[in-house]
Amino acid sequence: MKFSQLLTLRFPQNMITVKKLIKRFGPKTVLRGLDFEVAAGEFVALLGPNGAGKTTFLRILSSLSRPAMGEVRVAGYQLPNQAAAVRRRLGVVSHQPLLYGDLTAEENLRFYGRMYAVAHMDERISEVLEMVGLYPRRSDLVRTFSRGMQQRLAIGRAVLHDPEVMLFDEPHTGLDQDACIMLDGVLREVAAKGRTVVMTSHDLARTADLASRFDVLSKGKIVDSAGRDRVAPNDLLAFYRGALKN
Amino acid sequence: MNNFRNFLRALTAVVRKDLTAEWRSRELFTAMLVFALLVILIFNFALELDARARTSVTSGVLWVTFAFAGTLGLNRSMATEKDRGCLDGLLLAPVDRSAIYFGKAIGNLVFMFVVELVVLPVYSVLYNINLFRPELLLIILLGSIGYVAVGTLLSTMAVQARTRDILLPILLFPLVVPVLIAAVRASGGILQDFAWEEIQAWVNLLVVYDVIFIAIAFMFFDYVVEE
Questions:
Q1: How far apart are CA A215 and CA A240, in angstroms?
Q2: CB contact (8 A) between residue B84 and residue A98
Q3: Which domain holds residue B18?
Q4: C-alpha span between B30 and B153 (Å, rounded)
Q5: HEC string of B9-41?
């Protein structure tokens, strides 16, 4: 283990730091002075009603959207000035798969592998396809895949370059029960590798099982935050409702 | 040097991806080609021309065909990126975003060239006129580059809007008027056997337009895709 990694273990540093973030779309202010911190290796569930600003916030963290004001740091790099360095360390899964239907699963991963300059591409693609359980379907066109399979491949695409930080924007949307269970297994595997994860979700039951911390975003601000030690899985709904009332 | 290698790697990845996907679906090529052939046929029946008049209208008919078929292709090419959120996938990659622009533009240019390669012999047969002249092919090359350079940039802007199908032609045609005028004039001059000196100014305009708009796209693509 490298010395820098030992230091990280000894003194866990923030992988994501957001201070007084403001985002406006025309006259509408979506994020209103949002503060947010995530330590390395944490799995944070970002909960909140529709329109709270969850997706906008993740788009800013992923460098797809520019903040109006405030400080945003991901993996030690500032956004938007050091966006390329952030993107290299980031894996993003949204409710859209970001995959090409007319390419096979393997061709999709190869394309993204080239874009991220992934080393030992063949081995890495096989490894990722095995991880998401799609190796037998590697030569099939993505448009022939079910929604669940596409979402698993989307996770494969996002972890292909071995990112330190992963952002999931409602990954369970549109999946049936079996696909959700399979996706949860892949999410656990992703988190078990020590990656920092931020996931938005409306599915409190699934979130309760996966995350180590729960933050509630409402009207453009984090209104409450609690670790798994403070909120038992059965109490998550009460915690969520309480946070929205305050 | 390393940056340039990364730039080229990303650019070739985008071109290869677009060509492979199009080879499988043939959606874009089929739409462009069918449209282009229909335009030529309609003009053929609408303008019952003698040999002399045919030579004078050919350049106009050709460029109207290329421009409208090209717009279809540009719209579709960016729509496939937007529909499954793939544009976000491209923008999340740690590469110079102008590599994405040039990759998309080269892909669009290849589709346009393929359509032109089919349209030219069909037109030659229907109108009984030889279009395979090196000077004319040079004008088609320069005109297509200018058209695609602006079109790729504007289609990236238009695709963000709900009315993208009607927005692109509205944005594109006013800006490509200089390319179309220069290309029509230069092509017409070549087909009517004018001396090279007489069409030189139009060719120069095409070259200058291409250089300026490629430079503008290189500088502003990052801002166009930013939210």
A1: 9
A2: yes
A3: 2-225
A4: 23
A5: HHHHHHHHHHHHHHHHHCHHHHHHHHHHHHHHH
**What's the pLDDT tens digit per position in A114-149?**
999 999 999 999 999 999 999 999 999 999 999 899
The token duo for B178 is 């200089």
Judged by CB atoms closer than 8 Å, whether chains meet at A100 and B84 is answered as yes
Report CB contact under 8 Å: B227, A66: yes
- Report which secondary-structure segment, H or E, holds B216: helix B196-225
By the 8 A CB rule, do A63 and A80 touch?
yes
Residue A219's CB: how many other CB atoms inside 10 A? 15
Give the domain CATH number at A169: 3.40.50.300
Q: Is residue A42 part of a domain?
A: yes
The confidence score (pLDDT) of residue B199 equals 94
Structural domain of A204: 13-89+163-245
Q: What is the pLDDT of residues A77-93, one digit of tens each?
A: 999 999 999 999 999 99
Residue B85: name the closest of A162, A166, A169 by CA.
Answer: A169
Instruction: State which residue of chain B sits closest to A160, comparing Cα positions.
Output: B93
Give, in degrees to the nearest 5, the angle at Cα A66 between A65 and A71.
125
DSSP string, A150-215: HHHHHHHHHHTT--SEEEEESTTTT--HHHHHHHHHHHHHHHHTT-EEEEEES-HHHHHHH-SEEE
Q: Do the domain assignments include residue A191?
A: yes
* Predicted complex ipTM: 0.90
Mean pLDDT (10-residue bins), chain B, 227 residues: 88 96 92 93 80 81 94 90 90 95 96 94 89 94 97 92 86 95 95 92 96 94 87
pLDDT interval class at A112 (50, 70, 90): very high
